[in-house]
Write a structure and sequence with these properties.
Layout lengths: L11 E2 L6 E9 L8 E13 L9 E7 L1 E6 L4 E5 L3 E4 L5 E5 L6 E8 L4
Antiparallel strand pairs: 1-2, 2-3, 3-9, 4-7, 4-9, 5-6, 5-8
Length: 116
């Protein structure tokens, strides 16, 4: 069993091409003995966004706070707010954006441990 206070997990900038003002915290992972999933927390600053990208596995997301949108291929935007869940299936092109002018957008992203 392990308990991890979020404020004790390093917050690292996301260095992927196309990311703007995004940080990631690897909260629970293989290193903690997770047998199946890893949990990451992403914080996107106002005006920031993740890269517009795809990946080989599903992503399970939960919005902790803030206002954002999930952009799908073709540019359609889906509003997201505190308490919302989102599923991105394998190979679905997508991007997360913070749509707030003054508050961070924070979400949990669960992925298979191999994709942390």
């Amino acid at each position: 069993m392990k308990i991890v206070p979020i404020d004790q997990v390093p917050n690292e900038p996301v260095a992927m091409a196309g990311a703007k003002d995004v940080c990631r915290q690897l909260v629970l992972s293989q290193a903690d003995g997770c047998p199946t999933f890893s949990f990451r927390v992403f914080t996107i600053a106002p005006g920031g966004h993740t890269p517009y990208h795809t990946h080989a596995c599903e992503h399970l997301n939960y919005v902790i706070s803030g206002a954002g949108c999930l952009v799908e291929e073709g540019g359609e935007e889906h509003e997201l707010g505190e308490g919302d869940f989102a599923l991105v299936l394998p190979e679905e092109k997508h991007q997360y954006r913070n749509v707030s002018a003054d508050e961070p957008f924070r979400m949990i992203c669960a992925v298979p441990k191999e994709y942390e």
